[in-house]
Design a protein that fits this description.
With about 190 residues, this protein is an alpha+beta fold. The chain folds into two domains: about 15-55 and about 140-185, no CATH class; about 60-135, no CATH class. The protein is built from five helices and eight strands; from the N terminus they run βααβββββββααα. Strands 1-2-8-4-5 form a five-stranded antiparallel beta sheet, with no helix packed on it. Strands 3-7-6 form a three-stranded antiparallel beta sheet, with no helix packed on it. Strand 6 and strand 7 (about 110-115) form a beta hairpin. Helix 2 (about 30-55) crosses helix 3 (about 145-160). The termini are close together.
Length: about 190
Amino acid sequence: MTVAAVVIERSATAVLTLDEIYRQRRRHRGIAEEDDHLQFLERVAVRACEGRIGGPLLTARCREVLREFPRVPWLHLDLARAQPPTSITVNGQPWSGWTSQPADRGRLLRIEPAGERWPTVTPGAGAVVIEYDAGFGPSPADVPEDIRAWLLYRVGTMDEYREEFITGATVVELPTKFVDGLLKPYKPNQVHL
């Protein structure tokens, strides 16, 4: 029924600054190649985090495409921390007969028709297109501290064990239960349509 939600426009702003990463590593800046490497690892850690919590960290423009509306009188947008849609089109025509409300303690956004039912749709690829913003906010300061701590830990781990990641050697299982637990409050915890 749904094509996976996609981020169509995202901020180039880093969530973590190089100074934060160096401070966490207890090292001083100075080598440009090291800066590039750490910036790369920061982007990798951000994408890994976004995959785990189900949505972007910094505000991003997103799009979902449905072949038709669900058979139930509501749907949840696929990405966590979605804002009310900026536009919904049905068979190429703008549709404004919807309402939205937060669900799952604000981690998901529920959309439903303002009337009794969804509008009639000619089913097919791109029959319903929903555009919206999702994320904690536009600034790195909007990202919760526990998520920032997770990112710092992941960047540090990837940097410390870079040879194992690059060569594919077996890495001893790292203690992740506590660190990954930092993300638990931000993960949607229900199956949604």
